Amino acid sequence: MDPLLLVLIVAGVAAAFCWITSLVTNETSWIDRIWSIVPVIYVWIFAAAALIAGADATRLVVMAVLVTAWGVRLTFNFARKGGYTGMEDYRWAILRGRMSRWQFQVFNLLFIVLFQSALLVLISLPAYIAWQHPSPFNGWDAVFSLLFVAFLVGETVADQQQWRFHQAKKAAGGTLEPGFLTTGLFAYSRHPNFFFEQAQWWAFYALGAVALVADGGSWLNWTIVGAALLTVLFIGSTVFTESISSAKYPAYRDYQRSTSMLVPLPHRRRPAAETA
């Protein structure tokens, strides 16, 4: 069986599961619970297909191992926050309150389930390019693999800093000024974990592009859609999240003015007129 067809079948089953369970349980975080799992399955399907065919599968196995490390880390972080114990993403609850029941169910089916399920396939498809164009693992593969690992470490550090802050906030009775994290990596980016998450998938795209270039193709190929749509999704999600934070915490607007939203950058000083 063509590995892409198998990936699409698995994706269809996963999407159906998420939609049906969201209707049965009346909560919509099921796609969040498989987010860190299904891309690992998809990439290993391509790697296994190359191994079975006897092709040079080094690049694909490395890609699969990297995505597995990403999935293990993200699953652990999601689990320790209670993601597998019935906790729903607070943003879905807010959106549910702003829509009628039928509007939210359309949004649930089209965006939460179908769009995000398709996105999880799309971000995995550089592995399909690597399967189509087997070639020896080279220096560019090593560079982008190391970048992926560096971004993985960055996200791990950011999530750990955020976890410790929220644990300290909980221990303080739910209030810890200014109400949000502004130290560590969060002094350079308001959402460093979001930045590193996206960066990993851009590095993953580059690994697929390396295979195509080694076979005489271009660095630019159609699987860039996955990483690009992921970035669009994260930007939209971040803007929505920040609208909630700025309404909840008066000091958040000052934080927005002084600190980059995603890309870690030096702290911006406020103009003298504002600080006077």
Automatic annotation (TrEMBL):
Query: Would the keyword Membrane be found if you checked this record's keyword annotation?
Result: yes
Chain segments annotated as coiled-coil in the UniProt record: none
Superkingdom, taxonomy of origin:
Bacteria
Alphabetic keyword roster: Membrane, Transmembrane, Transmembrane helix
Membrane-spanning ranges: 34-53, 106-131, 137-158, 194-213, 219-240
Q: Name one Pfam family in it.
A: DUF1295
Gene3D superfamilies given in the database record: 1.20.120.1630
**InterPro entries documented for this protein:** UstE-like (IPR010721)
Please give the name of this protein: DUF1295 domain-containing protein
**Organism the protein comes from:** Microbacterium jejuense
